[in-house]
Amino acid sequence: MRDESRLDKYVIKEILRINRHLPRRRKTLEELLREERPHVVNRDGTKHYFDRDELERLADILPRYLHGRLKLPILIELGYSGAAVIRGKAEVRVVCEVLGEEWRFSQDRVELNMLDVRKLRREFPTATQYMFSTEYIMGRPKVERRG
Prior knowledge:
Distance between the termini: 12 Å
Number of strands: 8
Mean pLDDT: 87
């Protein structure tokens, strides 16, 4: 049991290291549209710049009252299951619109297959980023080992 816990901690630490490219703080679409050179600062100190055309397309997709709620970049969580997850009401609404899927007001999470992820990334390469998730480690059921 101890070795398993130590391994989990090591894997989580490595995943966090891999995620250094993610922003320290995501900005809203509203904030980014006001910037001359829209960007966020990443955890590793580099800057991630957004394509203004992508931001304007996102602004066209979402009602204006949600511009202050859509946090960018949209994070595509990749985990153990093979599916990708998008979280956040405004983020999910955008993704559903782009993919032609039905969106429900209460929906704040959507799972995507890799074909959908590819389509989303192709349409919004600077407004989306991959994030490697530790959820599968912390959420997996513990298996008791015998002998």
